[in-house]
Amino acid sequence: MAPVPAAYREAVFLVAVEGFSYKEVAEIMGTPVGTVMSRLHRGRKMLRESLREYAIEKGFLKADESLAVATHTRFPVAKFSRRCGSTSTKSQPGSIAS
User: CA torsion sign, 9 to 74 to 80 to 38?
Assistant: First the structure.
């Protein structure tokens, strides 16, 4: 993540690796939530491009191929619910639905 500027790198790291919510990251970084969202978008984009170049250099990807499949991150429901501050209303496996 070295080619990604520090502010963007920190936002991406705190959300993707540490699992903090956008609100928590905003508090940690002392910025509005909108700024965190912007830094995440731009940071992920920079990281994606950096990884694409690395993948081409190492032969994992051809220059005309895209990382489209790898760019769509899927979050586990528990992590997503925590991030959004909501709780799931779906029944758990093995439970009796009402």
Answer: positive
Q: DSSP state, 59? A: T
Helix (H, G, I), strand (E, B), or coil: what is residue 81?
helix
Closest CA to 40 of 85, 83, 69: 83
Tens digit of pLDDT for each residue in 5-54? 999 999 999 999 999 999 999 999 999 999 999 999 999 999 998 888 88
CA distance 2 to 52: 14
Decide: 62 and 74 in contact? Cβ < 8 Å: no
- Is this prediction's pTM over 0.85? no
